[in-house]
Amino acid sequence: MILTDNETKVDLLNNEAIATTIIKLLRDRPDQPVTVGVHGDWGAGKSSVLEMIEAGFDGEAKVLCLKFNGWRFQGFEDAKIALIECIVTGLIEKRPTLTSAGETVKDVFRRIDWLKVAKKAGGLAFTAFTGIPTPDQIQTIVCTLEGFLADPAKLATKDNLEAAVEGVKGLLKPKGEGDSTNVPEEINAFRKAFDDLLDKAGVEQLVVLIDDLDRCLPDTAIETLEAVRLFVFTSRTAFVVAADEAMIEYAVRKHFPDLPDTTGPQTYARNYLEKLIQVPFRIPALGDTETRTYVTLLLVGAELGDNDAAFNALITVARERLKRPWTSGALDAATVRTALGDKASRANNALALSDQIGPILASGTKGNPRQIKRFLNTLVLRQRTAEARGFGDDVKLPVLAKLMLAERFLPRLFDQIAAAAAAAANGKCPDLSALEAAATAKDDAKTAAKPEKAAAKGDDAVKSTPKLEAVKSTESALLSEWLSSPAIKAWAAVPTAIGGEDLRPYLFVAKDRKDYFGAASVLGHLAAVVEQLFGGKFAVQGLEADLKRLATPEAAQIFEAVRGRIVGGDSFDTEPPGAAGLAVLVKAHPTLQANLVDFLEALPRDRLGPWVCGGWEGVLKDGDATQRFDRLLQTWGKEGGAMLKAAAMGVLRTRQGVR
Fold this sequence. Notes:
single chain; 5-stranded parallel sheet; QatA; flat; 5% strand
C-alpha cells in the first residue's frame, strides 16, 4: 500500500464545499472578471480543490475551464507570455469552431507576437506599471539592431538579425483600421481581440485555474500574476489562483526589493496580493475528528480502490459526519463495516491500523494532508521491512508511529531516546518512562484537583500525586531538559506509552535515517553518558561528580566518542555542541589533558571561531599541556582568521600576565 501525493477529484477532506462555493460564485456573474485565491500551506489540498472545480464545470458547453501550471514553464520562457499563449491555444484546441474565425485568431496571435518579439529583441523588462514596453523603446532597439548590420563580425547569423529588425519594425507599423499607436491602446486592443475570440468560440465564461504558483521562483510567480492583472483581465474571464499566501508575499519582496516594508497597518507584499485576489479562500488544517476520518478513508481506499462502490458509499457517510465534526465524531468500526457491507472483511487491516494510529496522527501532524500521507507511507514501509527481515512481530504499529512522530517533529528528542535505548541492555529508555509518567501525572493531577478544589482549595491534590512525586525524586539532567519543553511533554502525552518497550527493533527499521547501533555496540552503557555531554553548559557542569566515578579507560572511550561527533559535525565558527562536555570530562579526569590539546591542534584554523581560545583555564593545569596550549595560541594568533587572531593574542597576554 503506497499512498500517492497527486491531486485528486475524490474528496476525502470535505474540501468539496470550498470548490462548490467557488463554482457558484463564478456562475453568479459570468460576465464579470474576477480573481479567486485558494490559499493554504503546502500539502493542504489546493491542487485537489482546483481538480474539483474543473470537474464541476464538466459538461457546461458555454463555460471553458483551462489549467495553467507556472512551475512547468519555469526556466523555458517568459511566464507572462506563456500564460497568455497557453490560454489562447487551449481555447482554440477545445473549440474547433474557431477554425472558421481565422482573422480573429490571427489578430490575437499577432498581438501576442508583439509582446514576444519585443521581449526577445531587447530583453526589455515588462514593468508592473505598464506591462509592455513603449513604442519609443522598441524604436531604440530597431536602431541598435540596424547598427549591427554594418559590422558583420558582431553577427552570429545575419539573416536572423535582418528578420528580427523587419519583425520589430513591422510591429510598429499600422496593421489596418483600429490598430493601436500607444501602450494603453495596445492593451485595450488585445483585450478586445481576445473578447472577440471568446464570442466566436461561443464561450460565455472562461475559467483559468493557476496551480503551483508557490513552487515557482519569485520572478516567475510575479510574472504570472502580472499577466493575470494586466493582460487577460477581460470581461467573462475568471482566474482561480492556488498558492500559499506567505510564499507569494516572499516573491513580491524578492521581486521588488526597494519597496518599503510596510504601508499603514499592512506590508506592501500583502497589499499587492489583496489587490490582485478579490475573493480569498483559505483551506483550514484538519482537526482531530477530520484527521482520524481522513486516515480511515485513505487506508480503506488504498485497500479497495478509489472507484469501488462500497468505498464511495463510505465517503458519503464520512461527508455526512464531517458536516458537523464537533458533534458527530470520527468514523468508528461499526459505521465503516455497515457502509462497506460484504467488503468489510477486506478492510479489516485498514480499520485496525486506523484505530491504532489515528489518534497519534491527529496529535502530531497538525492536520496537514501531505504530511499524513508521507507519514503513513513511511510507517507501512518500515513495518513491511520488519516483516521481510523476520522480526515483524516485534514491531507494534502504535509504538512505531509514536516514535516516528518524535523522529519527524522532535529530532533531537528522537536521537536522545534512540541513543539511550540502543545502549541499554534491555533496549529501554528509563527517562522516557519517567517523561510519560510526568505527562500523564499532570493530567491526572488536574482531574483529581477539581473535586478537591471545592472542598480544600485543591492545592494539595497536585502536590500529593504519587506519579509526579516519583518522577521528581528520580529526575535526571536529560529528563529535566525534556520536562522543560512543552512540545516534548505534549508528545509524551500522546496515547500509547512506549517507555517500557524494547525499542531496538524500531530503531533498526529506522536505520535509513541513522545507524544507532554502531557507536552503541562499542560504547554499551557509556553511550548514555556521551549523550549527556552534548547537553547545555549548565547541564554538563552538574555531571562532574558522576564523571569522576568512571574508570580511566571508560573516560578515554567517552572522550573519543565525543571528539569524533564534534569533528564529524564539521562546524567550528561557533562553539559546537559537546565542547563544554569535553571540558567537564577532562576536568574530572586530568589524564586526558594531552588528548584535549591534540583535539584542539587538529581543528581547521581557517574555519575556527574565537570560542576555541577560552574556557580551558580550569581544565589544562598540567605543565606540558599548558605549554602546548600557549604555543597553540601563538599559532592561532599568526595563522587564524581576524577574529581568531585577536582572541588568541588577547588570551595569551592574559595568561602570560597572570604568570
